[in-house]
Fold:
Amino acid sequence: MIVHNVESQSNPRERQLNKSSSPTVPKPIMEIARELGLNESSVEPFGWYAGKLSLASIEPRQSRSSAKYVGVTAINPTPFGEGKTVISIGLAMALVRRKLRSIVTLRQPSLAPVFGIKGGGAGGGRACVLPSDDINLHFTGDLHAVAAANNLLAAMVDNHCQRGLIPLISSNGISWRRVVDINDKGLAQIESGLANVPQAPRRLTGFDLTAASEVTSVLALATGMDDLRSRLARIVVAQTPDGEFINAEQIGAAGAMAALLRNAIRPNLVQTSENTPAIVHAGPFANISHGNSSVIGDLAALQLADYVVTESGFGSDLGAEKLFNLKCQTAGLQPSAEVLICTVRAIKYHSGRFDVRPGRALPNALLQEDTDALEAGMANVEGHLAHLKQYGIPVVVAINRFPTDSPAEIQLLRSLIVRAGASRVAEADAFGRGGEGCLELADAVIDACTESAEFKPLYSLESSYDEKIERIVTCVYGANGIDYGDGVAEKLIDFSSRGFGGLPVCIAKTQYSLSHDAKRLGRPSGFRFPVHEVRLSAGAGFVLALADGISLMPGLPREPAACRIDLDSHGNITGLGS
Structure:
């Protein structure tokens, strides 16, 4: 993506996109707010180009009865992603060009991918959210507040245990872990309390990524301040020596955690490179969490716009599956249509003929014309289409064009997508042409939203956990069944017996394959899905099921993106992009 340059520290209007990449200059955030019908009491400016929405201005309103809620997902990506953020932004901008009020809702980028493999996550080229540098880095401090709340709870649990407070906690009964928003693999498993101090027991524990924290999911799924406080209170952190669950409220931490998140719960209003409103809020990963932006941000957008375009993380087997079965089902959101993004390079990658590795540049052979590889990799697109058609809403397939795509490949891909059963296919070039490059896609989405649709999740919340997981692994991933690790089945039964049986399931697995194994490309079949661990996220309101090989603390690649990032003498950040 392009980089914001601070051309003059004294002139905020000059903090804009590289002029060769964008046709516009960012507007002051209050100008964007007024165009949405919001006033000074509804938006608190956070610098020149970002603002925090007032919860009081959101909660009494009603969603527009005709507002369309459009999801954006993708096929299984290469390690560098397939442009979901760029296309989501471009689609929202194209809808505005069609004289429709549109808002795009996105997750806040975690510092882990910013400094790790992918680089920045605020879009790219002519389809960015602004101010990009701020959004990619500390932004409004929401993720720092999440980490502080999470780690305050961890410190209070340790203190409670070591001091023998009531209810009693045994040190081996503590399940709550600390978090940090950096890929620090060395902290994944640690031993804490080595100094034998009165405030912390000596125990084995570890750090997860902030984006994988239950507190991040609580922030993303809460519908308001009271709901936030209630969810924090329900977080299960430990067990008594008799095996009873202990939550954050019993430790006395829930109120202080809510205080730390008082501003973080408020959605962040920004703008795109064409001044289209955008809400960037919460940041759960899709491979290790539920992978969608905040419910409260979407509810605000649905009150203000004709079309809300929301991006889900990674492929439809992760982000979109959780959008429909977890976010929409529990929050009562009704999707109108779904966009499935595919790229020539990702489809050829799924042919299995190329050596693609995270942290390394894509092989040159993958970027050359190869229609045979394109046909061989189409099975992955077919798998995602089959998955999405089960929800009863129209699907639009978007071909995100890259400069390396040949005309022959694009022509063949369009015909292959139609042959696979897609009723609507459109090309898009948001990176190169902004909203103008997504007009065909916008028209296809508008047409899709005229269809009568009846959204239906894959499973009922009243189903057993076995049935829920079975539905996901067979109907989404194409597995033959589930293999539970030691004690997993018993834990699921235990969760239900304690009154937590009506929660959705959030599966953590690789993003590179429909299966649990990153090396199984295309549309795998004839395999069983292994679940080695399950965790109760009672505050967020789901059960997390971890596939074999998954970690909630990713590591850095051989050449981290952080190595390319620098600051010049004028305060300009360089190398912060994807």
